[in-house]
């Protein structure tokens, strides 16, 4: 009995405890419900009237003790924050609130769940930091809290999860470094922290997690190199390091990861050569190395027949060479080698890769032709080889590719025709052959391409008409046939292309009027049929209310602009220029509130600019030039705050230029030339600080050039020519340093001087100031305008010399002024002419120069006189010497010698003879009697014979008649008389029998080079040579030449070289 009572009491206690615990859980869950927003009613059955173990998302234990083991409300559409009451569910092992719209922080109270094994909070909008306390969940095996707005650093306390198998922190805003102690997570299988802001180096300690199978660190800011320790992760199957800042080479150790299936190292800064080989990584299926700086060739060891590689992406690198090694990758399904430097031919055996689905080889240097065997790749869906150097024809075998959906061969050098077989590619959706040299007609069978969405054939040499069958390509959305030689009318069948949104046929020779049925194409957003020969009215192209761009320029459309154009409310660009349109500009254009480009130039439009256009507040370009528009320029144009170009030139506008235009702060080009505008140029134009071009020429503007224009600092073209502008050229124009194309102020009434500040316009190419009233000289500063290719200063009042830097310009650039200097006549300063007075500094400089030069000349003359005096002294000393030197050496002279400079000699004790500048080759030209006997010497053909020669005794030997000019003298020793004789041709005639004898004591000088006799010795010095002798010399009929010079001191006789003189 007692034992039964005890048992009953124990059971009652246990039931009470259980009842109390169950009641507490129920209360906590109901509080959790109250803090969540449940738009789908998932928590409707959470009620105190029922057992909480039956509530949605609740799983309890099945034993006698009732415990809540799992709370799973994933994907229930819940909103609000996670209630902190969840931390009271102590028995909870799994908490899954993922894929909801929960906000707020992760509650710290979650750390109170000691039995928690799995925590799933991913795909919400949770914010704040990951609580450090989460490290207390030591039994946690799965932690997935990614795809939230969590920030801050990754807590290193996560390394406490010794049993952790899955760590998902991807797609948050986490920053800082990845904790190195994550290497302690020995049981980790999946680690993904992709799409965060983590930085620093990848911890090499991750190489210690032998159980790791998935490693995803993509799209962070990791730097440094790839740890070679990753080669130790033998279980690893998936590695994604895409989108970081990793550098260095690819570690060859990665080839040791034998189980690897996917390796993505793309979008980093890796360099060097590819080290990955499927000879070791036999299970590798995806190799993605795109967007790095890898280089080199593709080596043979990349693949073999046992390779499992299905996807190879090497785009955006610096790989080069051929791609022949690819042929061994027989399992390939997708090949992307685009944007490299591969060259050579596409392998002819490319059909060995029979599994290929996608071939992307664009932006390389492939040449040769497209191999025809590519038509055997029956699984091919994408073939993109654009922007290479492919030549030859398009293989007709491509028509066998029934699965091909995309064919991009544009920007190559392919020629020939478009093969008809290509239209057998029934799955083709995108065909782009733009920018080749294709010719011939378009295939009539184009209509067979029922799935065609895009057809780009621009910039070829295609001719003929547009085939009517194109109208049967019912899915066609883009038709671009521009820049060809197509002709004929538009086929009416094009109106069947109900899905067409772009029609681009520009720059052909298409003609006739636009079919009215084209107006049925209601989805058209772009029509560009410019530069053709279309005629008629433009109404058929206005049928689509979806139009955003309409370009009909350079055709022959006529008639008025229909008012219905105002119904194209989506139109942003309207270009109708260079046609034959007439009438007024319809005011309905003002309904086009989104219009930003309006171009109606070169038509026959008349009337005024409609005020309704002021409603088009987004206008950036208004181009109405070369029409017959009249009236005044509307002031409301100043309200178009986005206006960047206004061109109203070559019309009949009159009146003044509205100052309101100065409010168009974005205006870059203002052209009003060739109108009838008058008044002054408003100073408000100086507010147009973005202005590049200002053209106001050929109007009737008057007044002065406003100095405020200097604020238009970006202007590079300024033309105010052919107006009636007066005043001077503002100095401030020199501040427009970006002026480059032209500065044209010609044909006005400008006066004053050319501002020197224009020399600052160093970029200027054309300067025109002609036909004004400018005066003064050309400023020297203009010489700095080294970029000038055209200059015109003609027809002004300018004067002075033309700077030397302008001499290459034609003379017409300076005519009508008072210029001199190249290219005009040279400058000549005359006494009566105007002279430019020199400054005091210039005068002083000239005087100083003259004094300096005079001093130099005086010093030079003194030097010459001193040298002459020294020579005279040496001669005097020689005459006083009493020694005799006689040496003979008969084999040094012969009858062929010549002697220049001879004279008449007396054998008296002193006689001087000189003769200069003259040479006789036949014999001695002068002779006379010795011992003072008189003789006469005549010079045939000469009217002024020389003077006489006097002997020792003074008896004269003369040349008759007396000379009219001074000759060279001969005198006696006592100096009684001197004389001279003929010194010019023709030479005197001398009897052959005459003799001249040199005796002792005779001194004869030949042009400063003397013959000296020193008391019995004769010293002959001719041209610096010396001869010493003592015997009488018979000079006739002897010819002497080449008297040798002593290399020693001529004043020392013992150094003289003696030369014998013999008849």
From TrEMBL:
- Coiled coil start-end: none
- According to its UniProt record, where is this protein mainly located? membrane
User: Which Pfam families does the UniProt entry name for this protein?
Assistant: LRR_1, LRR_14, LRRNT_2
What ranges does the record give for the region Disordered, renumbered to this chain? 966-985
Top-level taxon of origin: Eukaryota
User: Compositional bias (Polar residues) at which positions?
Assistant: 974-983
TM ranges: 841-864
List each copy of the Disease resistance R13L4/SHOC-2-like LRR domain by range: 133-233
Which ranges carry the Leucine-rich repeat-containing N-terminal plant-type domain?
A: 29-61
Signal peptide per UniProt = 1-22
Gene3D superfamilies noted in UniProt: Ribonuclease Inhibitor
Q: Which UniProt keywords apply?
A: Glycoprotein, Leucine-rich repeat, Membrane, Receptor, Repeat, Signal, Transmembrane, Transmembrane helix
**Which SUPFAM superfamilies has this protein been placed in?**
L domain-like (SSF52058)
Location of the protein in the cell: Cell membrane
The answer to whether the entry has keyword DNA-binding is no
Q: How does it sit in the membrane?
A: Single-pass membrane protein
Would you tell me the protein name for this molecule?
A: Leucine-rich repeat-containing N-terminal plant-type domain-containing protein
Which source organism does the UniProt entry give?
Answer: Platanthera guangdongensis
């Amino acid at each position: 009995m007692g034992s039964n009572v005890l048992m009953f009491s124990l059971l009652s206690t246990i039931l009470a405890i259980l009842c109390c615990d169950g009641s507490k859980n129920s209360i906590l869950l109901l509080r959790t419900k109250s803090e969540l927003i449940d738009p789908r009613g998932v928590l409707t059955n959470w009620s105190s009237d029922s057992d909480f173990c039956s509530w949605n998302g609740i799983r309890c234990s099945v034993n006698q003790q009732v415990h809540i083991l799992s709370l799973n409300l994933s994907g229930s559409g819940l909103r609000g924050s996670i209630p902190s009451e969840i931390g009271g569910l102590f028995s909870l092992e799994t908490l899954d609130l993922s894929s909801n719209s929960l906000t707020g922080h992760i509650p710290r109270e979650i750390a109170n769940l000691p039995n928690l094994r799995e925590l799933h909070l991913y795909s919400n909008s949770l914010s704040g930091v990951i609580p450090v306390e989460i490290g207390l969940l030591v039994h946690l095996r799965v932690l997935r809290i990614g795809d939230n707005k969590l920030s801050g650093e990754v807590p290193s306390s996560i390394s406490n999860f010794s049993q952790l198998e899955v760590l998902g922190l991807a797609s948050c805003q986490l920053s800082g470094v990845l904790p190195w102690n994550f290497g302690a997570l020995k049981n980790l299988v999946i680690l993904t922290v992709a799409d965060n802001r983590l930085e620093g180096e990848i911890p090499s300690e991750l190489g210690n997690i032998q159980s790791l199978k998935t490693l995803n660190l993509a799209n962070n800011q990791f730097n440094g190199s790839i740890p070679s320790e990753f080669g130790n992760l033998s279980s690893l199957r998936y590695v994604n390091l895409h989108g970081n800042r990793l550098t260095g080479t690819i570690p060859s150790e990665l080839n040791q990861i034998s189980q690897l299936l996917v390796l993505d190292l793309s979008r980093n800064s890796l360099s060097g050569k590819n080290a990955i080989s499927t000879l070791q990584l036999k299970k590798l299926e995806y190799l993605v190395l795109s967007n790095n700086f890898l280089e080199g060739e593709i080596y043979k060891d990349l693949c073999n027949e046992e390779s499992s590689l299905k996807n190879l992406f090497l785009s955006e690198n610096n790989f080069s060479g051929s791609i022949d090694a690819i042929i061994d990758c027989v399992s390939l399904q997708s090949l992307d080698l685009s944007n490299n430097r591969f060259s050579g031919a596409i392998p002819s055996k490319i059909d060995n890769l029979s599994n290929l689905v996608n071939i992307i080889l664009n932006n390389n240097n492939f040449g040769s032709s497209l191999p025809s065997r590519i038509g055997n790749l029956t699984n091919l869906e994408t073939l993109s080889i654009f922007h290479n150097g492919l030549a030859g024809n398009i293989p007709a075998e491509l028509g066998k590719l029934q699965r091909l959906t995309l064919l991009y061969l544009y920007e190559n050098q392919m020629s020939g025709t478009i093969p008809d077989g290509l239209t057998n590619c029934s799955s083709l959706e995108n065909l782009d052959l733009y920018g080749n040299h294709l010719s011939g007609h378009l295939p009539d069978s184009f209509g067979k391409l029922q799935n065609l969405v895009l057809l780009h054939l621009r910039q070829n040499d295609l001719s003929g008409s547009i085939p009517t069958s194109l109208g049967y390509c019912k899915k066609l959305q883009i038709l671009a046939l521009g820049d060809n030689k197509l002709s004929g009318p538009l086929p009416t069948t094009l109106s069947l292309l109900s899905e067409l949104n772009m029609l681009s046929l520009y720059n052909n020779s298409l003609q006739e009027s636009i079919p009215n049925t084209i107006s049925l194409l209601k989805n058209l957003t772009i029509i560009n049929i410019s530069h053709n020969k279309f005629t008629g009215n433009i109404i058929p192209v206005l049928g689509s209310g979806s139009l955003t761009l309409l370009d009909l320029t350079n055709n022959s459309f006529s008639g008025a602009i229909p008012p219905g154009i105002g119904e194209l409310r989506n139109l942003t660009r309207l270009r109708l220029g260079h046609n034959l349109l007439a009438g007024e500009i319809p005011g309905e254009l003002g309904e086009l509130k989104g219009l930003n480009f309006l171009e109606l130039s070169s038509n026959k439009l008349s009337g005024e600019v409609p005020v309704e256009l002021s409603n088009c507040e987004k206008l950036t370009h208004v181009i109405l030039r070369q029409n017959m528009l009249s009236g005044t320029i509307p002031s409301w144009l100043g309200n178009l705050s986005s206006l960047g170009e206004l061109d109203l030139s070559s019309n009949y506008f009159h009146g003044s230029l509205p100052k309101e235009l100065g409010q168009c702060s974005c205006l870059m080009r203002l052209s009003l030339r060739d109108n009838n505008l008058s008044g002054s140029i408003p100073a408000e134009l100086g507010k147009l600080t973005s202005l590049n071009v200002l053209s106001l020429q050929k109007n009737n503007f008057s007044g002065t050039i406003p100095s405020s224009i200097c604020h238009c600092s970006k202007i590079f073209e300024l033309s105010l020519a052919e107006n009636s502008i007066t005043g001077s050229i503002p100095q401030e124009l020199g501040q427009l340093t970006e002026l480059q194309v032209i500065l044209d102020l010609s044909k006005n009434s400008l006066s004053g001087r050319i501002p020197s500040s224009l020399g600052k316009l160093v970029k200027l190419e054309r300067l025109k100031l002609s036909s004004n009233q400018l005066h003064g000289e050309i400023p020297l500063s203009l010489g700095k305008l080294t970029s000038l290719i055209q200059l015109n200063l003609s027809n002004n009042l300018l004067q002075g010399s033309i700077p030397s830097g302008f001499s290459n310009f034609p003379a017409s650039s300076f005519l009508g002024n008072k210029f001199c200097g190249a290219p005009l006549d040279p400058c000549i300063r005359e006494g009566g002419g105007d002279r430019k007075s020199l400054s005091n500094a210039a005068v002083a400089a000239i005087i100083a120069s003259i004094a300096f030069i005079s001093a130099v000349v005086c010093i030079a003359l003194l030097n010459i006189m001193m040298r002459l005096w020294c020579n005279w002294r040496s001669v005097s000393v020689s005459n006083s010497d009493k020694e005799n030197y006689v040496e003979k050496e008969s084999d040094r002279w012969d009858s062929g010698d010549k002697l220049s400079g001879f004279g008449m000699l007396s054998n008296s004790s002193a006689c001087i003879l000189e003769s200069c500048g003259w040479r006789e080759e036949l014999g001695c030209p002068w002779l006379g009697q010795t011992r003072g006997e008189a003789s006469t010497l005549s010079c045939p053909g000469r009217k002024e014979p020389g003077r006489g020669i006097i002997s020792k005794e003074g008896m004269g030997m003369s040349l008759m008649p007396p000379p009219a000019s001074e000759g060279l003298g001969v005198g006696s020793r006592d100096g009684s008389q001197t004389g001279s004789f003929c010194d010019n041709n023709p030479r005197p005639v001398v009897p052959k029998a005459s003799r001249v004898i040199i005796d002792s004591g005779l001194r004869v000088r030949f042009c400063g080079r003397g013959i000296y006799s020193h008391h019995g010795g004769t010293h002959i010095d001719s041209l610096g040579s010396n001869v010493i002798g003592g015997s009488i010399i018979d000079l006739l009929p002897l010819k002497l030449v080449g008297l040798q010079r002593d290399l020693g001191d001529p004043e020392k006789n013992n150094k003289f070289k003696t030369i014998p003189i013999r008849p």
